[in-house]
């Protein structure tokens, strides 16, 4: 595996490439053109400039997170082909720039949903958290305003203010889209993009829905083993693969994470590894990565990745806010650096204990 960190680009991230370069064992970043909107064609020159900036700092651009999918594609609207053509043009430019990993998601309206961005833990750190009770009391249109005060002045991925202004229309767009329709819209999209992925050897890695159940009555399909295996089968091409995000699949305690990893052998192209601490099955917070700080056995997760021969990029996912850092919630430097170091330690121990 290759240890990486997510980086939003020098104009948007509080963390610098020079800082990332000093985290032992982190050799690359996962980045994006953060100022593009879903449906835009990414220019080759912009991609190459991003790549050069990263390489000049002594790191590699290990993949893109995310190339976001336009809602017309997810909702299966009449004009979806135009947006798929644009997506294909972006993939073509990424392929020309020698980039072979694209993370994306297929969640209607919202990307991940949290109800608190700065829950205070006993040690004084703050973390992202979720309670179903809070969601049940909220009108989806209020969701954004209820958390926007805690973003530390940053733009949260998937929660761009311009997008949130149109939230009513977005909900309207998905009114007749149920799980089956969403599956079939995903199949249509994948079938259209697979030829360009085959041509440039681009691994598409779908990110799970977070939390892994329906929120605000919206359909959600990338939530468990049965559904993800169905998706792998419905477009049976190795380029149709998965971002295995332990913190997202893990929101549903019925998901057996190591078992899911083993069942996806050969199709996991990217891994997000983080821990959650549950107070009840629908009240959880994003704890430190260490097993004992949360509810997951991180050793077993890393061992499962090792067992399937995982060689792709991996990254610590959301970190806590510690040591007075002010950054995009989940994306500060300090706790993600601790997470990367811990995961690297687990990996080293697993590798050495498997030496014949
Ligand atoms: C998130 C998402 O958990 C995560 O990694 O922060 O925003 C994720 O990057 C997207 O859903 C992937 O498209
Ligand atoms: Mn993730």
Features:
356 residues, alpha/beta, four-stranded antiparallel beta sheet, globular, binds D-mannonic acid, binds manganese (II) ion, iron, manganese, manganese ion binding
Could you say which overall geometry the principal axes of the C-alpha atoms support? globular
Q: Which series of helices and strands comes N to C?
A: EHEHEHHEEEHHHHHEHEHHEEEHEH
- Label the CATH architecture: Alpha-Beta Barrel
CATH topology: TIM Barrel
As a percent range, the share of strand residues is 15-25%
Q: Which oligomeric state applies?
A: single chain
What's the story with the biggest beta sheet?
8 strands, parallel, barrel
Q: Helicity level, as a percent range?
A: 25-40%
Name the CATH superfamily classification: Divalent-metal-dependent TIM barrel enzymes
Number of domains: 1
Radius of gyration: 19 Å
Please state how the strands of the largest beta sheet are arranged side by side. Answer: 1-2-3-4-7-8-9-12
Please state the structural category.
alpha/beta
Total number of beta strands: 12
CA(first)-CA(last) distance: 20 Å
Given as residue ranges, the uncertain stretches (5+ residues, pLDDT < 50) are: none
Q: Give the class-level CATH name.
A: Alpha Beta
Cofactor: Fe(2+); Mn(2+)
Keywords: Iron, Lyase, Manganese
Function: Catalyzes the dehydration of D-mannonate.
Pathway: Carbohydrate metabolism; pentose and glucuronate interconversion
Plain-language structure description:
Its EC number is 4.2.1.8. There is one protein chain. The protein has 356 residues and is α/β, with parallel strands linked by helices. The chain has one domain: Divalent-metal-dependent TIM barrel enzymes (TIM Barrel), CATH 3.20.20.150. Helix content is 39%, strand content 17%. It contains 14 helices and twelve strands. Strands 1-2-3-4-7-8-9-12 form an eight-stranded parallel barrel, surrounded by four helices. Helix 4 packs parallel to helix 9 and helix 12 runs parallel beside helix 13. The longest helix is centred in the middle third of the chain and has 22 residues. The two termini are 20 Å apart.
